[in-house]
Every structure is written in C-alpha cells, then in structure tokens.
Amino acid sequence: MEALPIRIGHDVLAAIRAQAARAYPFEGCGALLGPEPVRVVEAIPIPNVEGGSPRTRFTVSAADYIAAEERAEARGLRLLGFWHSHPDHPARPSVTDRAFAWEGLLTLVIAVRGGEAAELTAWDLPGPEAPFRERRLLVETEATAEHAGA
Question: Could you confirm whether 27 is annotated as catalytic?
Fold first, then answer.
C-alpha cells in the first residue's frame, strides 16, 4: 500500500526555497509543522549549528528543537519533521541523513545549485532499520487547501 502524499502549502514551499538559497553555500535547515502527519502548513528556519562541516551537514541544537516543538504546540500543530538543503548535490538523502533520521519524522531535502533552490523531495522512515522511503509531494494553493477542508 502506497503511503499518502505529503501536502505542502505553496507559501511554505516558497519559504523553504528562499531559506535554502540564503544558506548557500552551507546547508540550511528548518522545522516542519502541521496539523496532521501528511500536511505541512509552516516551515520554521533553524540555524545550522554544525561546527565541523556546515557545507555537507546540518545540526539542530537541542534548544532550537525544543523551541520548534513549543511553537507547534502553541499553534495547535505538531512537529512533523525537518527540511535541509544539499548545496550543489541532489535532493536525495545521504548516508549521514539516514544515520541521524528519526522514524516518525518527515525529511525534506532540497537541492541548491550555485545559490539557486532546485528540486525538493520528501522522505520518511517506515521502520527503525528501514531505508528512506520517498513520499509524493502535493503543493497546495489557498484554493486547493480550502477544497481539501483546511
């Protein structure tokens, strides 16, 4: 059985693209918030505090993680996962991404080529030892969100 697609607002996608481009040549990252596991309604930029290799890795501080959870809760939403960019690399999760990913959290990867945001892909982990599973993304406009009962 195919997993449900991930719905993401057009404005949320635009914010991720802008944040990823701004972070270039380093990896940018942020939290994904939504009312349900398959609908992203907000992306919060989070500083990449990776000290060793910020061009090829990202690290979210414990304080920023807690702040994202608190922001989600205050808005009646859930922390669904995180997005991060791959500067001058494909929008595919790396071995490092898999090593640090958590089951139950969404992973969005956006390629940034020469400072320009490119393709975005969505992934999850269907089990603790499972490889990443690609998820289909549906970009919503205000009209499609209203039609879907948002």
Answer: yes
